[in-house]
């Protein structure tokens, strides 16, 4: 399904030129499509891969595991990293664990079950990369803890920040989504102007923000 973020022809072209995933990742994409599970879009997955290879992080935190697709993308791209990922839905955790086991990444990916806002407060580690890919209306609730847990020189990656173009223009806003749109606009304003962050908004997928912690 195309979005209002990029011209449909451009988006189709980008996806057509991307090499297709195969093996387990391809299977996961098909599972997500059949079961209506949100996972990162192909061009975002490739961006994550490139960023991990450039940054070479040792510790990664992900908020929003779903079935473990993006955790595996991050893990495959940064082989020496340890990933902590948070998910509140038990059924998705069970599916994610099965895929992670099949990928032989159980030693490098740890899933924490529960409410992300609460779990973030308990984490003692600091991270080189934090990837936010959970409930869009809750990003501001995760932000202060995420900035605190991010190492200086680290990267905060926020997915779905343009939300089918609704964030950019009221022309696209669906009435029942007004609260989420308002919250995401506040989130973007905050990270764009935060004294400790340098942030770029990228109009691919459903919109990605990349923030560098000074």
DSSP summary: helix tally: 8
- The helix/strand order is HHHEHEHEHEHEHEE
* Count of domain modules: 1
Q: What amount of the residues lies in strands?
A: 15-25%
Overall outline: globular
CATH topology: Rossmann fold
What is the terminal-to-terminal distance? 37 Å
CATH-level-2 architecture: 3-Layer(aba) Sandwich
The level-1 CATH class: Alpha Beta
How many DSSP E strands? 7
Helical content (DSSP H or I, runs of 4+): 40-55%
CATH superfamily: Vaccinia Virus protein VP39
- For the residues shown, what is the average pLDDT? 95
State the strand order across the main sheet: 3-2-1-4-5-7-6
Poorly predicted segments: none
Quick overview of this protein structure:
It is built from 8 helices and 7 strands.
What attributes characterize this protein structure?
alpha/beta; 214 residues; 8 helices; Rossmann fold; 7-stranded mixed β-sheet; single chain
Polypeptide structure, described:
With 214 residues, this protein is an alpha/beta fold. The chain has one domain (8-62, 71-81, 118-213): Rossmann fold. It has helices at residues 8-17, 24-35, 42-55, 69-77, 90-102, 116-122, 139-149, 178-193, and strands at 59-63, 82-87, 109-113, 127-132, 150-159, 197-202, 208-213. A seven-stranded mixed beta sheet has the order 3-2-1-4-5-7-6, with helices on both faces. α6 (116-122) runs parallel beside α7. The model has no long low-confidence stretch (mean pLDDT 95).
């Amino acid at each position: 399904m195309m979005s209002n973020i990029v011209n449909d022809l451009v988006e189709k072209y980008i996806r057509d030129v991307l090499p297709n995933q195969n093996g387990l990742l391809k299977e996961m994409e098909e599972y997500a499509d059949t079961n209506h599970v949100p996972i990162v879009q192909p061009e975002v997955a490739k961006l994550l891969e490139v960023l991990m290879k450039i940054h070479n992080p040792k510790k990664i935190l992900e908020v929003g595991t779903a079935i473990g697709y993006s955790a595996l993308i991050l893990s495959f791209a940064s082989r020496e990293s340890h990933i902590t990922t948070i998910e509140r839905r038990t059924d998705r955790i069970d599916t994610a664990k099965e895929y992670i086991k099949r990928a032989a990444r159980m030693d490098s990916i740890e899933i924490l079950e529960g409410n992300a806002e609460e779990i973030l407060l308990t984490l003692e580690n600091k991270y080189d990369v934090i990837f936010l890919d959970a409930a869009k209306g809750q990003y501001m609730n995760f932000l202060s803890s995420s900035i605190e847990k991010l190492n200086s020189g680290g990267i905060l990656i926020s997915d779905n920040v343009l939300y089918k173009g609704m964030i950019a223009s009221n022309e696209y806003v669906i009435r029942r989504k007004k609260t989420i749109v308002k919250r995401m606009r506040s989130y973007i304003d905050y990270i764009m102007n935060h004294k400790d962050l340098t942030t770029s908004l990228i109009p691919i997928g459903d919109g990605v923000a990349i923030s560098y912690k000074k």
